[in-house]
Amino acid sequence: MNLNRKIGNQTINFINPVSISSFGCVVGKKEKNGPLGKWFEHTLDNNYDHEKTWEKSEQKMLQSAMEIALEKKNYIPSDLEYFLAGDLLNQIICSNFTARSFGVPYIGLYGACSTLVEGLILGSMIIDGNYGQKVGVATSSHYETAERQLRFPTELGVQRAMTAQWTVTGSGSFVLENQIDQLMITQGIFGKVIDMGISNAMNMGAAMAPAAADTIVTYFKDTGKKPEDIDLIVTGDLGNIGRVLCKDLVQEEGFDISSNFTDCGVLVFDPSQDVHAGGSGAGCSSSVLAGYLLPQLLNNKWKSMLLVGTGALLSPTSSQQGESIPGIAHGVLIEKKVIGG
Q1: What is the average pLDDT across 123-145?
Q2: Distance between CA 232 and CA 229 in Å, rounded?
Q3: Could you give all domains of the chain from N- to C-terminal order, each with its CATH number?
Q4: Is the distance from CB of 57 to CB of 49 less than 8 angstroms?
Q5: Triad 313, 31, 48: Cα angle to 5°
Q6: With 50 labelled, which of 61, 150, 254, 334 sits at a CA distance of 20 to 30 A?
C-alpha cells in the first residue's frame, strides 16, 4: 500500500479507511422509464411532486435522497458531522434549504455537474484527516429548473439542437464513514479547468470532454496504472458526443479506454426517449452512482471503478456575454472490498 497521501501532480491517496456505508436516490418519471429504471427504487409522481414550483420539488427531492441514505443505517441528520451538497440553481438554494432543515455543519459546493465527485473527495479528505467520522454528500438537478436557468424555459417550446443533452431530474446521496466496508473510496484526483473555446451551451459534452480526458490521463500518469487495471471508467455527463471525444483524446495520449469506458449520461436514457445527446446535470452522476453503479459493485459485476465527474462552468450571464465554457473534471476510485474473507 502506498502510504503517501499525494501521488504525482494531482492524485490523493487516502491512508485511513473511507467507506460509502449507505446511499440513496430519487429520480423523475423519465429517468424511471429509461434503461436503468428497475434500479431506481424511489420515483417522483411528476416533476412538481405535489409542490407549487419546480425549485421546491428539486429541494424536496435532494432532502428525500439524503434521508433515504440515512434511514438505511438508522441514522438521523444530526448523526452527520458534516453535510456537503450542491446543485445547479443560483446560490445552490436546494442544498442550502436542505441544510437549513438538517441543522448540522454544512459546506455548500458548486462545481456544476462535477459537484458530486468534488464532494466525495472533500468528504473523504475530512475523514482521512480525522476531522470527522460521518459525512453526508448529496447533489441534485431537475430538468425544468435547469432549462429555465441555463437555457430557455420549457414553456417556450424552443427546438433543441441535436448536440443538446437532457438534464436529469434526480438526486443521489451518500454517507461516508471511517470504517472498513464493502465500498471504499481509496483515491481521488482534483482536475484542472480547461477551456477549448466552445461557447455553445447546447453542446456542453464537447466543452467538458477535454477536462475529463486530462483528468483521466493525469490519473494514469500519477499512479502508474493502466486502463486495464480498473474494471470501469465512467464519466458523469459527457453524453454521447462528449464520451467519444473524451475517449479519442485519451487515446491520443497513449491510453486505450475503449473497452471499459462509459458515461452516466449515456447509461441513464435510451435514444428512443428523444434526449438527443444523452443525459446531464448534477443529479445525473449521483443518481446513476447510487441507483445503479454501486449496487453493481456490491453484486460483483466490477471490483473497481474510476468515477470522473464532469462540469461545464458556465452561467446565464457568461453565456449571454459570449464567453466560452470552461470545463472541469474530478475523479474518485471506488473499490469493492471483501469483508471477512
Answers
A1: 97
A2: 9
A3: 6-177 (3.40.47.40), 185-336 (3.40.47.40)
A4: yes
A5: 85
A6: 150
